[in-house]
């Protein structure tokens, strides 16, 4: 009988492009220094090489060695064999090797749809009845206005569930949508050809944009038509239990409007206006509606530049108390930058470019839900050829900073134990660390777009390898992809549906140095931040899924497919 694969051999369990780097890492003491790549049946050796000398992993200090088989060009299904350790999980070498996981990462959003039933025709093994129609949503007292007093009702249907919970948050939708729309703007021909088997497939519009529209239509309903401000979130007072969407019947509220929500909304609507404006027949009037919504939201934020969503303060004043995700940002400088950049690019009006200081300092902060400055920079760089003179003069500086940021991310990656860009410092391993790996990958692809230097492509690929298994946990963090992938995400439908396999295409949060203290799951065994992950559904701090983590995976996996293929 074949031996079980060795958990100590860590590699991208999906596979490798014939013409791109191929690396595996072996953890633990080892005398032997050779490795072999063999056909999956173990019968034929297609490549042999020497392991790099042993070195301690940065955080756990465990000994590691690297197997580099980049020069293997043969296609097929293989295992890596290391005498004294055993064999790895199987992987493929072939063109378009990430095509399926890339598509699945978008399909993951379909599974997050509120309002709609998911029939078996599209949902395969995971059909479910419609949940959370949100056609009768209450105005929370914190959101009351003369036209919409507390307790009055609005309709705010569609959208995606944020994560493992069933609420809908504008701030987190903001970065998610911006990332997905940017993926489309950067790789339009690639997405035009992709089919995801969703209800809208075949309507001449890329499936990615059909899926994104599901959430866009919800977002539009979150704007107060009276003044243009945007409600921070649509939520239950408290998280639902571990039940299926249709079983969750608690009342839902929209809460206080805020500056972050309004600016994120403005940025998304401005970008959406540009993108959907390319499909006027399919979506008549949509681009105009989005742009109007964007300008109104931006104007509201200019008049209300410091309205924080402070859940504690709100709970002191109003009932019912709200205890769901806060996404409480206090600093709006980056949201102003992002919104102004998108409005400028869509309208070509210099007044948006000059409305805020786009370069207040030389910082290049990695994107996350509370930090969206670079989304604006990426968009400005994307349209480098279409800038008006006022923006054109900043372009060299902007491009220089984007490339320098990528260089900084890459520095030392080749010498790290796992040879990934991810893991430079302990800070990479926070709540939702997988999104750091993916967002670093996006930053590297921006540098590739500017320089055409393939070293950035390969560096970005190292982080996709990280997400699919070449990491200190040995897990592929994408459900359904990889023999040892996340099986028990903190995701209500996956927990409550009675189906063994988790809903596929979802990215787990990943190792989080604080996770054991935050969710107090009993199953952690790790002692270092890069290993602080448990594939247990109690682990909302390391094993939840979230739309703002899946979105950069969509960009990275699909972008690499578009750019590398071979
Ligand atoms: O992604 C969020 C992370 O940065 C925060 O540290 C964490 C705790 O506040 O919340 C995360 O977001 C969660 C949100 O509040 C509610 N839905 C699930 C999100 C993912 O865990």
UniProtKB/TrEMBL annotation:
SUPFAM superfamilies reported in the protein's UniProt record: E set domains, Six-hairpin glycosidases
Organism phylogeny: Bacteria, Pseudomonadati, Bacteroidota, Cytophagia, Cytophagales
Name recorded for this polypeptide: Endoglucanase
UniProt similarity note: Belongs to the glycosyl hydrolase 9 (cellulase E) family.
Record-annotated Glycoside hydrolase family domain positions: 101-556
Active-site residue list: 535, 544
Origin species: Rufibacter immobilis
Reactions performed catalytically: Endohydrolysis of (1->4)-beta-D-glucosidic linkages in cellulose, lichenin and cereal beta-D-glucans
Plastid among keywords: no
Record-level GO BP terms: cellulose catabolic process
Enzyme Commission (EC) number: 3.2.1.4
Any single Pfam family the record assigns to this protein: CelD_N
Keyword Hydrolase: yes
Protein keywords: Carbohydrate metabolism, Cellulose degradation, Glycosidase, Hydrolase, Polysaccharide degradation, Signal
Residues of the Cellulase Ig-like domain: 5-86
GO molecular function terms noted in the UniProt entry: cellulase activity
